[in-house]
Amino acid sequence: MNLLTFQTNEELNQIGASIIASLVQTKQNAVLGLATGSSPIGIYQELIRLNEKGYVSFKNVRSFNLDEYVGLPAGHPETYLSFMNKQLFDHIDINKENTRVPNGNAENLEQECKLYDEMLADASIDLQVLGIGHNGHIGFNEPDQNLHGGTHIVTLKEETRQANARFFDSIDEVPKQAVTMGVGSILKAKMIMLVVRGADKADIVHRALTGPITTEVPASLLQTHPNVVVLLDKEAAKYFH
Ligand code: F6R
């Protein structure tokens, strides 16, 4: 595992974006696994800049997002599809037909999960971007006695809903369920880039990467993956010294 600590957000964003950009420069039809949330936003902004400058093109890139809320109306600004359009896809030359976010409004959600897994199996992710939740979740794989390998419907933990309430008018509006890629699919990615910012994540990221491997800290499973790069800002890195 390659742990990189950055003194400034600007440097973290530049290195994070250059890891993605160099993959895409050498493999133009790369398959990216993408995350929403606040952690990757600065990296996406840097990718937009690199794309505008002509240093990298996403024309032949395919992408799969980790997760989506269940039941938010299509077009709601907090759906993860809206997030991805606003934060990245609307501003780069990616073909939107090659971007996938699970459909949280599918009539048959079980079927949607199966379909997503079939698409993932066909595509094979080259690089998966991840953030980490305060409870150690990755995607929306919440701490539990058992974890799922494939895409599934999940009931969000109260702490996750609280953490995400900042994007909604009130906690009551935060959906109670989501569709998420499973840890099996995440760990199948050829490379994983975990992005962690802020003192409030320092303890969980340290426990996940140095503590026991346990389903109660889903991110601890990343210890079993052969090719993980972790980008930490200096606040999140505080227990690694
Ligand atoms: C987002 C996702 C989540 C977030 C995590 C951290 O697609 O799957 O696991 O990465 O909740 O969120 P932020 O980055 O907002 O702290």
Automatic annotation (TrEMBL):
Keyword Signal in record: no
Function, as annotated: Catalyzes the reversible isomerization-deamination of glucosamine 6-phosphate (GlcN6P) to form fructose 6-phosphate (Fru6P) and ammonium ion.
Active site: D67, N135, H137, E142
Record's keyword annotation contains Hydrolase: yes
One Pfam family here: Glucosamine_iso
Stored InterPro entries: Glc/Gal-6P_isomerase, Glucosamine6P_isomerase, NagB/RpiA_transferase-like
Pathway assigned to this chain's UniProt record: Amino-sugar metabolism; N-acetylneuraminate degradation; D-fructose 6-phosphate from N-acetylneuraminate: step 5/5
Homology family: Belongs to the glucosamine/galactosamine-6-phosphate isomerase family. NagB subfamily.
UniProt entry keywords in alphabetical sequence: Carbohydrate metabolism, Hydrolase
Span of domain Glucosamine/galactosamine-6-phosphate isomerase: 16-226
Protein name: Glucosamine-6-phosphate deaminase
Enzyme Commission code: 3.5.99.6
Reactions listed under catalytic activity: alpha-D-glucosamine 6-phosphate + H2O = beta-D-fructose 6-phosphate + NH4(+)
Any one GO molecular-function label of the UniProt entry: glucosamine-6-phosphate deaminase activity
NCBIfam families, alphabetized: nagB
Organism lineage: Bacteria, Bacillati, Bacillota, Bacilli, Bacillales
